[in-house]
Specification:
This protein is α+β, with helices and mostly antiparallel strands. Helix content is about 15%, strand content about 40%. A hairpin with a 2-residue loop joins strand 6 and strand 7.
């Protein structure tokens, strides 16, 4: 998860999209919004995660896909990257799905790194104190995206390929319950040394 940490530390400007040439010539796309710096804010708990994979079929059908596994195309993910910023993360009691009305945080940065769509942001730690203990269990939590205006290349295909979509949010859930079992989620306790970098929310 070092890549998403770097996402906050590189200097893009607020809401600006950039392409980076990474290791072995892999191109990365990244976006972030800038928040005012507030040292030791009690309701901002930084998180980072892998939201989904692109150009890879899901391990199982996501909700709303009528039983079809899906592939989010790279072109669709790149085009939809700006729509992730400012969207909420939510969770459902039981950690097995989505509850869009149980919003517990906000996405402030997103990066397409290889086939991983990585995100970072803040949980509302003071408002949802019960969350931290659960999601601190290393490796147990994953993520799942929420979409609108999705376009499927061929509805008759056994695996649906999404060629266009708008992100409307994301859910935190058990990895075993996610459509992609390779997703991940973790919170990051800020030290004095790195608090400034996270609070500025600059990629």
């Amino acid at each position: 998860m070092g890549q998403i940490e770097g996402l906050h530390r590189r200097s893009f400007g607020a809401g600006r999209r950039e392409g980076l040439r990474g290791v072995a010539g892999l191109e990365m796309r990244a976006m972030a919004v800038e928040f005012p710096e507030v040292h030791g804010h009690p309701n901002r708990l930084p998180f980072e995660g892998v939201l989904t994979l692109v150009d890879v079929a899901s391990d199982k059908a996501p909700s709303g896909a009528r039983g079809h596994r899906v592939v989010l195309s790279r072109a669709a993910a790149e085009a939809a990257l700006p729509s992730l910023l400012g969207m909420a993360v939510d969770y459902k009691a039981g950690w097995d799905g989505h509850d869009a009305r149980q919003k517990c945080g906000i996405i402030t940065a997103a990066e397409l790194d290889g086939n991983r769509l990585c995100v970072a942001g803040y949980l509302y730690a003071r408002d949802f104190p019960e969350m931290e203990e659960k999601i601190q269990v290393e490796g147990s939590m994953g993520m799942s995206y929420e979409l609108a205006d999705a376009h499927v290349a061929d509805l008759r295909a056994s695996i649906w390929t999404l060629t266009r979509a708008t992100f409307t949010g994301a859910a935190i859930l058990l990895r075993e319950k996610a459509a992609y079992r390779s997703t991940s989620f973790r919170v990051k306790r800020r030290s004095t040394a790195d608090a400034r970098g996270w609070a500025r929310m600059k990629a």
